Amino acid sequence: MTLPIGATAPDFEAETTEGKIKFHDWIGNSWALLFSHPKDFTPVCTTELGALAKLKPEFDKRGVKLMGLSVDPVDRHSKWSEDIKETQGAAPNYPMIGDTDFNVSKLYGMLPASTSGDPLTRTPADNQTVRNVFVIGPDKKIKLVLVYPMTTGRNFQEILRAIDSLQLTAKHRVATPADWTQGEDVIIAGSVSNDEAKTIYPQGWKEPKPYIRIVPQPK
Q: Is the pLDDT of residue 162 over 90?
């Protein structure tokens, strides 16, 4: 069962391509994106890791740390990195967990608790449920979960858009409408009474319905 939004992201220690880490310590006061892959040297994941490497400055700008995961060993991640650079034009510039004991995959509900054995003998199909994206806040709570099938590459622009919304709505008592992007109008949160809203937004708001109160994006 995938961890629900609002749950505390399980802490763990793991070997990564950048050394051993303790996850909560590694996150610190930042946001984090934990994304998983069923197997090294798989085609869709190769494109994803390269795309994310190119987009890392965008995540840096938002204060979001990146952490990848595959159940294969760290030394295979390093070899895969060479292929990623050759075919995608950029190698991973963020740590990748070698989850060879399936510990993190189990903690995050991506593999059954009964999973065991040699990870190198497992096929991508055996690990097809290890295709999650978790966005985690500085409070170590899970803010967003996305799960992709093996045949569908992730849309990292959508993930950035969602992070923009998460960070905005964490700071201001607003919500973002369908297809919202940075700079567009937002909706006053339902938890804000009209009396409160008048003090926050003295200039007023557009109200096509009493429960839809539209204001410019707060700065």
A: yes
Report the percentage of the chain scoring pLDDT > 70.
99
Sheet holding 206-209, edge to edge: 174-175, 186-188, 212-215, 206-209
* Residue tagged active-site, from 14, 27, 45, 66: 45
Active site residue 45: yes
Which residue segments constitute the domains of the chain, with CATH numbers given? Answer: 7-153 (3.40.30.10), 172-215 (3.30.1020.10)
Helix%, strand%, coil% for the chain, nearest 5 = 35, 25, 45
For residues 117-136, give the mean pLDDT.
89
